[in-house]
Amino acid sequence: MINNELFLKAKHTVDLLKQNGLKVATAESCTGGMLSAYITSVAGVSDIFEMGLCSYSCRIKNEILGVSKETLDKYGAVSENTAREMAEHIITISGADIGVSVTGVAGPDSSEGHPMGYVFIALADKNITKTKLLNIKPISRNFVRESAVTEIFNLINDYISQSI
Questions:
Q1: CA distance 17 to 47
Q2: Is the distance from CB of 31 to CB of 52 less than 8 angstroms?
Q3: Surface-to-core class of residue 127, CB atoms within 10 Å of its CB (0-12 exposed, 13-18 middle, 19+ buried)
Q4: Within a 10 A sphere around the Cβ of 38, how many other Cβ atoms?
Q5: Is the distance from CB of 144 to CB of 150 less than 8 angstroms?
Q6: Other C-beta atoms within 10 Å of 81: how many?
């Protein structure tokens, strides 16, 4: 079921990416592909969307997304460092201008000692990486996922407005 407000946020973000000639790729964990689904629900998205990868396991985060074993062992899958490496490596895999990532606890249970709603997002380009910890009020699993996706769109929009 599509959240119309979130769809409009996705459309705005896709339009900004198009206007600025930027391509994006996503690396998702706790959102389970929701970010990619909202981006690709916008018509004409093939101009800006390179790829989306959804990875729940540490093995895939390491082997495919390039998150170091050391990072996963020391900080865990739900960490700022993991979000950073996911965003940085999705650029390498895809060739996109911007890589965004999300990893955290959608719930209903805790994970790695972190409560539901504890989520990290990141945005990387070839020069910088920005990360943000979200402590989302855990109303429901879907609420956590939608809130994280909304915050990623905000992160992309802020990045573009600061780059202009």
A1: 9
A2: no
A3: exposed
A4: 25
A5: no
A6: 19
Tell me which fold the domain 4-163 belongs to.
Answer: Maf protein (3.90.950)
Task: Please state the domain extents for the chain.
Answer: 4-163
Is the bond preceding residue 138 a cis peptide, omega within 30 degrees?
no
Kindly give the pairing relationship between strand 118-124 and strand 129-135.
Answer: antiparallel
pLDDT tens for the chain, 164 residues long, are 789 999 999 999 999 999 999 999 999 999 999 999 999 999 999 999 999 999 999 999 999 999 999 999 999 999 999 999 999 999 999 999 999 999 999 999 999 999 999 999 999 999 999 999 999 998 999 999 999 999 999 999 999 999 86
Q: Give me 71's structure tokens.
A: 């990072």
